[in-house]
Amino acid sequence: MANETLFLLSYSEPFIYAGLFLILFLCGLGLPIPEELTLLSGGFFVSLGIIRFYPMLAIGFLGILGGDLTIYAIGKKWGQDFLNHHHLRKILTEKRLERGRQFYRDHGNKTIFIARFISGLRVAAFFAAGTMGIKFGKFLLHDFLGALILIPLLILLGYYFGASIFWLAEIIHRIDVLLKILAVLAGLTALGFCLWLRRKPSGRA
């Protein structure tokens, strides 16, 4: 990924903006491109005077939110058809789907906000948000709130610590892995608790 971002240095400022926008948009579509390193690189380019801060900030929001909204829209339009596929129907029964809908009704806001910070969960969470019927305004608000923290933070880190950009990217990657592990453990704990409640005697004679 370092080569994909650093090669932009040999091009003009508008081309760099276009390249960064495309990379960030593709990140939102789930391609294995580290969004964090792209934003750090953008901040580094700003520190070198190659591009400007506010256009880079705008590119960050447009690219990332554009990708997120595209995945959400795909889930909104075709997600239910995907879930109704006869192979998936053997696993995802109507009862399980209703649990998913209830989960997003109860915890959709938190899920969208938290998923913005965890690269491995973003696409699945945003696709599910569209599929489960989360309203557009609610999705956009909570995705934007997460982006409002993440995007400026990473650009500023790249700006002030550009010489250590790859070290920063490695630290962020490790934090991301830790968050994924914690998310999986939390999910398994919740699942185990639900199964325990089901099997627990009601206490009635």
The Cα radius of gyration reads: 20 Å
Count of β-strands? 0
Q: Please give the alpha-carbon distance between the first and last residues.
A: 64 Å
Proportion of β residues?
under 5%
Quickly count the helices.
Answer: 9
Number of domains: 1
Sketch the major β-sheet. Answer: none
Q: Which bin fits the share of residues in helices?
A: over 70%
Notes on the protein architecture:
By secondary structure, the chain is mainly alpha-helical. The protein has one domain (2-199). Helices cover 80% and strands 0% of the residues. It is built from nine helices and no strands. The termini are far apart.
Name its key features.
single chain, 9 helices, 0% strand, 205 residues
Walk me through the topology.
Layout: H1 2-6, H2 13-28, H3 35-47, H4 53-83, H5 86-89, H6 94-115, H7 119-131, H8 136-160, H9 165-199
Helix pairs in contact: 2-3, 2-4, 3-4, 3-8, 3-9, 4-7, 4-8, 6-7, 6-8
Give the gist of this structure.
The chain is 80% helix and 0% strand. With 205 residues, it is mainly alpha-helical.
